[in-house]
Amino acid sequence: MLKYSILLSSFLIASNANAYEVVKPEFDDRKWVLGFTLDAEAAKNGKIGAEQYVLETETMQNWSELVTVNSMPGLNILQPYNFEQSSKKEIGKICKKIEWFSTPEVTGQKDRTWSYNMSECGNLPSQSEIVRAFSTDAGFYVLHYSTRNLPISPENKEKWTQVLQKTTVEKIY
Predict the structure, then answer these.
(1) Biggest alpha carbon distance in the chain?
(2) Per residue in 68-84, pLDDT tens?
(3) Is the pLDDT of residue 43 over 60?
(4) Which of 35, 53, 115, 148 is the most exposed place for a label (fewest CB within 10 A)?
(5) How far apart are the first and last CA of the chain?
(6) Which CATH superfamily groups domain 2-172?
(7) 3-state secondary structure (DSSP) of residue 167
């Protein structure tokens, strides 16, 4: 029995070494289509991946709402709070006006959601964003819901916070 357990454990460890994760984004009840992707096979090769979804009637050049999924395989050491603070600093370098809505840091937190409004950002459009950043055993993921309707309504903010929270990651072997 011990020999079998060791063999099974070795197989599971080897299998996990070849495993990768795929984000299964959630949306509201409207039709969303993939507007942009970095190499769809990127996650399998341990590369950073990105996908952006727009409403069926819109394009990447002319969107009113946008959902972005960033995948960073192997970067599970990133902390969501630190990522948020870094994002805030970088956006502050580009935009003259930012309203940031966040909660205090919780030590060891592996899943975090915040939002912000940004305007006067040079060539970038003014927009509101809700962001969820989380880590798993195999990677770090960032989900964004963006809208050009400033500010985002409390109802829409609540709806999209819940939608982003429903997004899952599936391990593929």
Answers:
(1) 67
(2) 999 988 888 889 999 99
(3) no
(4) 148
(5) 26
(6) Mog1/PsbP, alpha/beta/alpha sandwich (3.40.1000.10)
(7) coil
